[in-house]
Design goal:
Blueprint lengths: L4 E2 L5 E2 L7 H20 L3 H17 L9 H22 L22 H8 L3 H12 L4 H8 L3 H20 L5 H4 L11
Helix pairs in contact: 1-2, 1-3, 2-3, 5-6, 5-7, 6-7
Length: 191
């Protein structure tokens, strides 16, 4: 089909022929599929990239200059779609039967921190609750106070006293936590 078109200067170009898009798919489809398969391997990902390439080309085809190299244009689009598929693959989590165990990078107590757990366990109840809610759970003092039915200042004081005892425990070369904790259970109690 011959259609008149205009050059950039506005004069008519009578001998330029614009192919129907279906003809581009027929002429260059196999080449585009080979490019997709070269990047992605045979399978549904390559076929999806082929389809996406032609959908993108269909949208841009009306704006393409009539004298453009259609095959190079389509291969470029297909290559970019295939690369996008490779990047998508890299972001998809792969299921495994069993997850590897790795040490925590967050500084959370692991199985080897029995001493710390024992030291926290010897704190009076109110200090233990305040330390656990504020420092371990990350709650603000006001929320910790709501949970314990106390005031914000009392929770702050109990948490500070509990942390002070834990620091003493670690400064003294990790002596027994029972030596550091006060025997009086009322110490550090919420008011």
């Amino acid at each position: 089909m011959r259609t008149p078109s205009r050059s950039r200067a506005g004069s008519r170009l009578l001998d330029v022929q614009i192919k129907p898009f279906e003809q581009l798919v027929t002429d260059h489809g196999p080449t585009v599929l080979r490019v997709c398969r070269a990047v992605l391997g045979a399978g549904p990902d390559a076929e999806d990239a082929w389809s996406e390439a032609f959908l993108s080309a269909l949208k841009a085809y009306p704006e393409l200059p009539p004298d453009a190299n259609h095959e190079a244009w389509l291969v470029t689009i297909a290559h970019r779609k295939a690369i996008d598929a490779v990047r998508r693959r890299a972001r998809i989590p792969m299921p495994t039967e069993q997850l590897p165990e790795s040490p925590s990078s967050l500084g959370l107590p692991g199985d080897d921190d029995d001493e710390l757990r024992q030291a926290v366990a010897t704190l009076p109840l109110k200090q233990r609750e305040a330390v656990a809610l504020h420092y371990l759970a990350g709650l603000p003092y006001a929320e910790a106070a709501e949970l314990t039915g106390s005031t914000t200042d009392a929770v702050r004081r109990a948490a500070a006293d509990g942390m002070a005892k834990l620091r003493v425990f670690y400064r003294r070369g990790r002596q027994r936590a029972t030596d550091v904790a006060a025997p009086d259970a009322s110490e550090g109690a919420f008011r």
